[in-house]
Amino acid sequence: MKNLILYILLCLPLQFFAQISGNVNYDKNNNNNYNNVNPGAKITDNIPQAQWLDERTVMLEVNALSNQNASSYTAIFNMKQVGLTSEETDRVFNERYESFVNQLIAAGIKKEDIYLDLVSFVPVYEFEEEKKLFSKKTYNEIPKGFEIQQNVHIRYNDSKLLGKMMSAAARNEIYDIVKVDYFVENSEEIYQDLRKRAVDYINKEIAQFEPLGLELDDTYRFATEEEKAAYPTERYANYKAFSSQSLDGTSKGKVNNADKALTHFYQKVAYDEFEIIVNPAILEPAVQFMYNLKVKFRLKQPEPKVEIKREKEFVWLTPNGEMRTLKVENDDAPAVKPSNSGTVTIPDDK
Q: Kindly report the CA angle at 296 between 292 and 297, in degrees rounded to 5?
């Protein structure tokens, strides 16, 4: 019994790690079918590295990100119809389309939010074998029918309606959802909020230079910024998770590999490059607004100290007309009294 308990305890951490990591890492590590999803990096690649531009220039940079749910969506479904004649093809297509629209309206979609976009209406051809007795076979291309293809654009505000739209499409033999576009109305306000947060972050960094004894020159300052948004449509990745046995050591022969399921999932922009993250915990795919701010400063150089020293010089004019300098160490020295044989003059600013 003790051995059984010990065995369970040893197995638990491995199971927990597998649940936290997910099959996406299993595929990356074992099957090399990983499709550019969070590519592996060395541990040291994630450590920030400070760099100098030169001895007097400092660059401060901040990256900000804001996750925002879409205010509206547009789903695009592709419809195809094939018929023997153009009239039949058009009639059957319209019947399916009208049935699809009625079920969308019943699900809560407004009729004015449904748009039909014509893609193509072309004849379809096939090859017919021309039978000959004493020559090679000849294949002639002949008309087979017509194909019409149109896209149904559906605008909606509640993301939960997509499931009902999928069900309505399946009931009308529509199995191709092209994409879902996401729209955010107040994108300008979102960027303004990110800019304000980034400026506040830079100002806090500037204040942190004072304890280091470094002072930034306010007269020399340059700034540049850049904005970008990542939409869920472009953030889906895929992988295959499976384990195959090796045939090493067995007799050689033909191997028929089974088709492996391809898993698609939403992969948000990673947070490791951002100092500011607004709404970090997201449940549904979101539009990710990104803002980058760079500010370049010059460090103040210490001003040279200039010491001004004024010296006074006393000159004695002898009776013979000769000038002799009298040395006086400080202003507190006793005054020189003129004698009967000459005078003492004190020049200004000396």
A: 145
Number of continuous H segments (helices) and E segments (strands) in the chain: 5, 13
**Domain range annotation of the chain:** 1-34, 53-71+210-241+260-305, 72-183, 307-350
Domain 72-183 homologous superfamily, CATH? Protein of unknown function (DUF541), domain 2 (3.30.70.2970)
Task: Write out pLDDT tens, residues 303-339.
Answer: 777 777 766 677 777 777 787 777 666 555 555 455 4
Model-level pTM greater than 0.85? no
Q: What is the pLDDT of residues 8-58, one digit of tens each?
A: 333 444 343 334 445 565 555 554 444 444 433 333 344 555 566 777 888
- DSSP secondary structure letter of residue 330: S
DSSP state, 300?
P
Tell me the C-alpha distance between 26 and 83, whole Å.
Answer: 47
Q: Taking Cα atoms as reference points, which of 182, 155, 200, 212 lies closest to residue 291?
A: 200
State how far the alpha carbon of 338 is from the alpha carbons of 316, 317, 345, 349, in Å: 9, 10, 9, 21
Q: Where are the beta strands (DSSP E) in the chain?
A: 57-68, 72-83, 114-130, 138-156, 176-183, 216-230, 236-239, 263-266, 276-278, 287-299, 314-317, 323-326, 343-345
Residues ≥6 apart with Cβ < 8 Å to 205: 60, 62
Report d(CA 68, CA 71) in Å as an integer: 9
Q: How far is CA 44 from CA 36, 41, 49, 332, 349, in A?
A: 20, 8, 10, 70, 67
